[in-house]
Amino acid sequence: MKTDIIVMGANGRMGKSICQLAVADPDCTLAGLVDNREHLGKLEGFGCPVADSLSAVLPAANAVVIDFTAPAVSLQSARTVSSTGNALVIGTTGFSPEEKQELESLAGAAPIFWASNMSIGVNVLQQILPALVQALGPGYDMEMVELHHNRKKDSPSGTALTLGECLAKARNWDLGEVRCSARDGMIGERPERQIGIQAVRGGDVVGVHTIYFMGPGERIEITHHAHSRENFAQGALRAAKWLSGQKAGRLYGMKDIFQS
Fold first, then answer.
1. Which of 113, 21, 28 has the alpha carbon at shortest distance from 74?
2. Active site residue 148
3. In the chain, N or C terminus with fewer CB closer than 10 Å?
């Protein structure tokens, strides 16, 4: 059975990738596209309804909505599906703690899935990093550098924060208490309880995350390169197909797909 897909921000960089892959996927059908009114003319070639609001294409289509837009827009999408019962896949980053809490609450009324990164590789990293942290022990300092294109708005990236939380939990730390994302001037020696997460921006880099484990006499580097946005788009479609068979009740993530 095919999964009907509605794409929010369909004329954006991620939106275009999702649309193209959905058209090529025999298990998916584009059921609707949403973007700003001035962009709607560019979307008519896909042969499905286009609108400048999600409510205009729901609930007529029993579809899974995919949203890689901005926190405020994605949160509104979640509010909309909570009243229609449609499923929603969110790949947006930059949510505040209060916004994440609202997402979790709305997931009680509709199947909602959120991941800061949809790539298989990054999510596998989350599974193996805790074992590496524990095996190396407290004698190794942990740092991270993330590199993205010059149009990315949030910093550090959502992926970097997710990976940072993974590292912090492995040492029973709270990332909010130990994260350092700026160093300047005479700051003194590096504290033992610290995880540095630095952001670099430039060009059209899709995404690079490097985690450093630095101990006595050696250094381990683990780097994930995202070569194209298709990687994230494929993950979003995989999540949409999986989510179409789930019930409301809690906020789902990539870990749920792996466990199932």
1. 113
2. yes
3. N
What are 219's strand-pairing partners?
214
Q: Spell out the alpha helix ranges (H) of the chain.
A: 13-24, 71-84, 97-106, 120-136, 158-170, 175-178, 230-243, 254-259
- Higher per-residue confidence, 120 vs 170: 170
Residue whose tokens read 């990976």: 163
Choosing from 16, 39, 152, 169, the catalytic residue is: 152
Q: Please give the domain boundaries of the chain with CATH numbers for all domains.
A: 3-118+229-259 (3.40.50.720), 120-226 (3.30.360.10)
Cα 93 to its chain centre, rounded Å, is 6
Task: In whole angstroms, give the CA distance from residue 202 to residue 199.
Answer: 10
The residue annotated as part of the active site, out of 148, 209, 224, 241, is 148
Is 42 known to be catalytic? no
The structure's pTM equals 0.81
- pLDDT tens for residues 79-94? 999 999 999 999 998 8
Q: Which two tokens stand for residue 148?
A: 């993205």
Amino acid identity of residue 170, one-letter, is A
